[in-house]
Amino acid sequence: xxxxxxxxxxxxxxxxxxxxxxxxxxxxxxxxxxxxxxxxxxxxxxxxxxxxxxxxxxxxxxxxxxxxxxxxxxxxxxxxxxxxxxxxxxxxxxxxxxxxxxxxxxxxxxxxxxxxxxxxxxxxxxxxxxxxxxxxxxxxxxxxxxxxxxxxxxxxxxxxxxxxxxxxxxxxxxxxxxxxxxxxxxxxxxxxxxxxxxxxxxxxxxxxxxxxxx
Length: 214
Ligand code: URA
Prior knowledge:
This protein is of the alpha/beta class. The protein has helices at 15-25, 31-49, 86-96, 143-153, 169-178, 206-211, and strands at 3-6, 9-12, 55-61, 66-72, 77-82, 101-109, 116-122, 131-135, 138-139, 159-163, 166-167, 184-186, 188-189, 192-193, 199-200. Helix 1 (15-25) runs antiparallel to helix 2 (31-49) and helix 2 (31-49) crosses helix 3 (86-96).
C-alpha cells in the first residue's frame, strides 16, 4: 500500500506501519516496546522518504561475471532530530541509513509568550551539500517544526523533508502555510489538539513514552 497525498503531505498507509502505530498508541504499551516499535516504524518511514534518492550504475564483479549494477549516488543525507523525541526516529532510521550524518535542534516554548526558543543547534558543517530529513514523532501545533525548518533554511541544505508519526490538522496547516516547499511524511492525521496541545487521540507525550520519564 502506497501513500495518499494531502497538498505537500504524504500519508503513509502501509499496513505494517499502521499496525505498529496502533500498538504504540495503546496506553498500556511499555517504554521498552514503544521504543522498539518507534525504531521499526522509522525504518519503514525511511524506506518511503528515500524513494527518490538518485541512483547510478557502477561496474562490479560478481563471482560469475562483471555487470553494471545500481548504487545510491551521493548518499549525502543528514537526519536532523528535534529534541528530544526526534531521537527515537533517528535511532531507527540509522539502522538502514548507517552512513547518514546526524544533527540536533533543541527548542522549547516560552511558557508566558509561547514563543519558540532555540537552546541547541548542531548540524554537520557540510550541510549545504546534503539533503535533510528533519524528524519529530508529533506534529502538534507545528510551532517547533516550523521554527526548526526556518533555522535549517539558514544553513542552506540541498533539500529538506519533514517526517513525523502523527500530525494534527492544525500543525499540518501551519507547516503547509509557512513551508509549502517542504514535503511532509506522516503515518496518521489525527482529529485535533486538546487545550494542552496534545494530539487527540494521539499517543500521549512521545518523549515521556520513549524515555520512560513519567
Ligand atoms: N507532543 C507530544 O509528545 N504529544 C502530543 O500529543 C503533542 C506534542
